[in-house]
């Protein structure tokens, strides 16, 4: 990107978004698009992907298209763009025929710089014919992993995006963005969207503001109750695997007096929309949902995400957990793991209409998820290594990195397990292996003659649950592995050799009594919220209240006006002049003109 274009981009960033500099990866992606290059951006949630296509759209002639999977995402982003002074709209099934016609007419007349559309809109001949009448310099594909059959959320409708290119002359720049993608998925995205020698930017998968933790064998209801009560006023999402579990958890939380909503595909569209809007507007503290909720949800001030059940794979988990802390402020991500969750996900895989190759892949991904739930390694490092970053360092923040429980030498027990797996000819699963070790009186054990093995009953002092936990921990730490099938078989990994030869010892931490982590402090002036350094929390709460009143007045979610991070900086710097207020990150020209005076007046009154 030339110097002149770079200056234009930086000026637009300041004017519209209120930031003086780009984040990691943004400048390169923006520059490539402005230079006419296709791009593939893989950036974690909260890294600022949307700016990478919104900013070029402002500077390029004509109207840019954004293909987005969810109606809620379109509305949130369009509201935010219009608040920053960038004319934008969306066209989807939520509009009446008259509204659709009016917006199509506005697109042809050049009233918008960005138009958000659902992929299904690309099948509309009317829409495609209208495109021939406008200049389309850029087509941005958000949540691009949806185009890949190997991604965790494949959507056949995304395959229509390439067909669109035949109707736009000259061919627009194609820009694909996603938060998570393995190397296989990245190649699939580039191939299926026919990206032409794209500029590829992967900014890294680590989220420095998130603390990850896995809680095993907890009383989930008791844990949730204490966890949420210790975080009053903090917005959070609780994910559950099934509609029935969503209903059950929601009923439990509402009985406790917690302002909670629910969201799943079994509710009417009106019910889902009402719950989502209430959550976005901060009228609800918590929303309990299946994975039908949240992809692309722009709510920036979600402080925690709790998975009441294990998701189907690590990509889905990290996408969902990553909805905490989108504003860069601290977020907590907790997985409440139970072995029963594995059976639920296997049921979903078997019930799916996928072919056998896809099912085998799904089982492999599920095994990776189970390993994450059992690993003693840094949780952040486990995830980023999954996505191909082998040189990652421990994060120092996750539940494993901060675990101060006593390390116990379990080398002897591990050797017995390895010996048992070998004597069972590496052909059976975790449960039967645990039963042999415990010396269970089981018909299948007698059938295969395993009751005559020297290891039979050698660990009878432990329960079957303890033994399955030990085996899964050995799998997670790379001593054993599971086959990719509905009924996975335990096999020995190369790492076993060092243990059996006496060159390596195996350690495990003592299982603790499960307690919910305490809520984070909120600076020196108060208690209870996110950790943002020294700032006046009394003023911060007043600013939040003013923002809520404004949001209700304008009919938009509060974060569309200002993010929590912007309010926190206000309450730290306490600006009392226009110049000082404009120096706060996240305050562009349009937002200052619309809201700046009221916030300044509140700060002046509060600091007298």
From TrEMBL:
Cofactor: Zn(2+); Mg(2+)
Helicase ATP-binding domain location: 30-199
Class of enzymatic activity (EC top level): isomerase
An individual GO BP term: DNA recombination
Pfam families linked to this entry: DEAD, Helicase_C, HRDC, RecQ_Zn_bind, RQC
UniProt GO molecular function: 3'-5' DNA helicase activity; ATP binding; DNA binding; four-way junction helicase activity; hydrolase activity; metal ion binding
Enzyme Commission number(s) of this protein: 5.6.2.4
Protein origin, superkingdom: Bacteria
Domain Helicase C-terminal residue range list: 220-370
SMART domains given in the database record: DEXDc, HELICc, HRDC, RQC
SUPFAM superfamilies on file: HRDC-like, P-loop containing nucleoside triphosphate hydrolases, Winged helix' DNA-binding domain
Domain HRDC per the UniProt entry, residue ranges: 533-608
Catalytic activity: Couples ATP hydrolysis with the unwinding of duplex DNA by translocating in the 3'-5' direction
Keyword terms: ATP-binding, DNA damage, DNA recombination, DNA repair, DNA-binding, Helicase, Hydrolase, Isomerase, Metal-binding, Nucleotide-binding, Zinc
Classification via NCBIfam families: recQ (TIGR01389), recQ_fam (TIGR00614)
Full protein name: DNA helicase RecQ
Classification of source organism: Bacteria, Bacillati, Bacillota, Bacilli, Bacillales
């Amino acid at each position: 990107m030339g110097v002149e274009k770079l200056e234009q981009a930086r000026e637009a960033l300041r004017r519209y978004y209120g930031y003086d500099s780009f984040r990691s990866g943004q400048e390169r992606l923006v520059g490539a698009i402005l230079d006419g290059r296709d791009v593939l951006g893989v950036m974690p949630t909260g890294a600022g992907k949307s700016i990478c296509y919104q900013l070029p759209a402002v500077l390029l002639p004509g109207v840019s298209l954004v293909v987005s999977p969810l109606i809620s995402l379109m509305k949130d982003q369009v509201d935010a763009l219009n608040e920053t002074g960038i004319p934008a709209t969306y066209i989807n099934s939520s509009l009446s025929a008259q509204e659709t016609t009016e917006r199509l007419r506005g697109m042809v007349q050049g009233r918008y710089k960005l138009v958000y559309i659902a992929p299904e809109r690309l099948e509309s001949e009317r829409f495609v014919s209208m495109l021939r009448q406008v200049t389309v310099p850029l087509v941005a594909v958000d949540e691009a992993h949806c185009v890949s059959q190997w991604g965790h959320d494949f959507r056949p409708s995304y395959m229509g995006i390439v067909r669109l290119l035949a109707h736009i002359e000259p061919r627009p720049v194609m820009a694909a963005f996603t938060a998570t993608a393995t190397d296989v998925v990245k190649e699939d995205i580039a191939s299926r969207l026919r990206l032409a020698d794209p500029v590829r930017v992967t900014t890294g998968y680590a989220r420095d503001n998130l603390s990850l933790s896995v809680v095993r064998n907890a009383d989930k209801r008791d844990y949730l109750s204490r966890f949420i009560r210790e975080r009053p006023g903090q917005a959070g999402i609780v994910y559950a695997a099934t509609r029935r579990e969503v209903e059950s958890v929601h009923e439990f939380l509402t009985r406790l007096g917690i302002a909670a909503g629910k969201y799943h595909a079994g509710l009417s569209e009106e019910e889902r929309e009402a719950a989502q809007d209430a959550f976005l507007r901060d009228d609800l503290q918590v929303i309990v949902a299946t994975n039908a909720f949240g992809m692309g949800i722009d709510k920036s001030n979600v402080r925690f995400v709790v998975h009441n059940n294990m998701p189907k794979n690590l990509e889905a988990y990290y996408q969902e957990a990553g909805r905490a802390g989108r504003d860069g402020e601290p977020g907590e991500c907790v997985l409440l793991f139970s072995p029963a969750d594995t059976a639920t996900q296997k049921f979903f895989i078997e019930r799916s209409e996928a072919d056998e190759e896809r099912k085998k892949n799904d089982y492999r991904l599920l095994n990776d998820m189970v390993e994450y739930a059992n690993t003693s390694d840094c949780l952040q490092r486990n995830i980023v290594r999954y996505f191909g970053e082998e040189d990652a360092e421990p994060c120092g923040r996750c539940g494993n990195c901060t675990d101060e429980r006593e390390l116990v030498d379990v080398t002897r027990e591990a050797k017995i397990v390895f010996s048992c797996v070998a004597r069972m000819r590496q052909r059976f699963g975790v449960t039967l292996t645990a039963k042999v070790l415990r010396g269970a009186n089981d018909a299948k054990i007698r059938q295969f003659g395993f009751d005559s093995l020297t290891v039979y009953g050698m660990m009878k002092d432990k329960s079957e649950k303890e033994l399955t936990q030990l085996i899964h921990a050995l799998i997670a730490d790379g001593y054993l592995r599971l086959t990719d099938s509905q009924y996975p078989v335990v096999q020995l990994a190369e790492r076993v050799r060092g243990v059996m030869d006496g060159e390596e010892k195996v350690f495990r931490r003592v299982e603790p009594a499960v307690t919910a982590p305490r809520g984070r402090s909120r600076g020196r002036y108060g208690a209870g919220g996110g950790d943002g350094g020294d700032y006046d929390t009394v003023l911060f709460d007043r600013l939040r209240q003013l923002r809520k009143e404004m949001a209700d007045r304008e009919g938009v979610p509060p974060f569309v006006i200002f993010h929590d991070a912007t309010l926190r900086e206000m309450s730290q710097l306490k600006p009392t002049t226009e110049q000082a207020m404009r120096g706060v990150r996240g305050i562009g020209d349009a937002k200052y003109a619309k809201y700046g005076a009221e916030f300044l007046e509140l700060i002046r009154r509060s600091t007298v």
